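User: Run a structure prediction on this.
Assistant: Running it now.
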Amino acid sequence: MLTFYITRHGETEWNLERRLQGWHDSPLTERGINEAKNTRLKLKDIKIEKIYTSPSLRALNTAKFIGLGNIEIIEDKRLMEMNMGDWECKLWSNLGNEYEMYRQHPESFTIPGGENLKDVEERIKSFFNDITSLKADGNYVIVTHGATLKVIYMYFNNIPLELYWDVPLPVNNSLSKATFKDGKLNEFTLGEVYTDVQTG
């Protein structure tokens, strides 16, 4: 059995400010560091072969706290957050009408200067196609981002992108689990999610 433990990076300063990060970065908060350490404790009895992570520093540093220097960490750009283009560094509350268009048509809306959800889906499809074709068993950790993790879950559960806003956002360092057998998805369990409406 091939098993992936998929986590979102720890809390960052911009998460607290409700500021869009995308391909930009902000440091992990003290809580974010502790969340990453707690994820490590959850996995302490599991033999992890490798950690695959987005190269964004908030994800890479989360991976380092999980691995403690004892597990090989592999950076892969396909695991990065959705490129938020012109929206990056802005507060969610300041996005205006463009954000309303994104809410109404998430499957087709392209963020100015950035990506759309289909772009993210194509990236993660490529990543999982590569890794599941190379590995038949073992346990691996994936460190990624909120929107990317939602799209991963939706892709493997055949949920159309039109329903993006119906899928709850995983909390920072929540732990999802996906198992594969003979290259095919066996089960996907989404980790802890926000119970209120979260934009990203």
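The mean pLDDT is 94.
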